[in-house]
């Protein structure tokens, strides 16, 4: 009995740590990195710093860290016309829509990667969330 209690306590503490990272976060980030490198890196740069006046940074912006639906919509539908303003800068490249080139899984993964890279820390975007928004925006 004496040995069982410490083992139980260790198990509870270990589970609490494991729960801070939702299941699959690490794997989603790893898959998302591959999507980022193939699809976003050319414009937003390897470190997410963007290109002044052309492509905005992805470092702690309100779109990256904020409402997941608004963020996912940017990937599905793209943006143009300098709608984004960050620290007084506007960006004059168009952001291409990717609803026909990326799957729900790829969008969920790449957004989970971006929300957990470049100094960002935010919750995962799930496949179900992307799927629901894609259906709604049709
Ligand atoms: C052809 C260049 C290009 C590519 C490729 C591209 N973007 Fe963008 N992105 C832009 C531009 C330009 C804007 C701002 C558009 C505007 O202001 O109208 C933007 C805006 C954004 C924003 C909102 C503003 C911000 O910086 O927080 C996010 C988030 C974003 N892009 C993420 C991505 C992700 C993720 C990918 C890959 C799946 C990607 N982009 C691919 C050029 C690009």
Automatic annotation (TrEMBL):
Superkingdom of source: Bacteria
GO function terms (MF aspect): electron transfer activity; heme binding; iron ion binding
Domain Cytochrome c: 27-118
Gene3D superfamilies: Cytochrome c-like domain
Signal peptide boundaries: 1-18
PROSITE patterns (UniProt xref): CYTC (PS51007)
Listed InterPro entries: Cyt_c-like_dom, Cyt_c-like_dom_sf, Cyt_C_IC, Cytochrome_c-type_DH
Keyword Electron transport: yes
Keywords of this entry: Electron transport, Heme, Iron, Metal-binding, Signal, Transport
KW Ligase (keyword) present: no
Protein name: Cytochrome c
């Amino acid at each position: 009995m004496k040995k069982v209690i410490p083992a139980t306590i260790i198990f509870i503490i270990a589970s609490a740590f494991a729960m801070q990272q939702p299941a699959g976060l690490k794997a989603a980030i790893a898959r998302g990195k591959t999507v980022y490198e193939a699809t976003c890196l050319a414009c937003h740069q390897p470190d997410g710093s963007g290109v002044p006046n052309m492509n905005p940074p992805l470092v702690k912006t309100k779109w990256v860290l904020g409402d997941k639906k608004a963020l996912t919509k940017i990937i599905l539908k793209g943006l143009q016309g300098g709608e984004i303003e960050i620290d007084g800068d506007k960006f004059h490249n168009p952001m291409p829509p990717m609803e026909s080139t990326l799957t729900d899984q790829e969008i969920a993964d790449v957004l989970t990667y971006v929300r957990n890279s470049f100094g960002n820390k935010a919750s995962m975007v799930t496949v179900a969330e992307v799927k629901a928004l894609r259906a709604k925006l049709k």
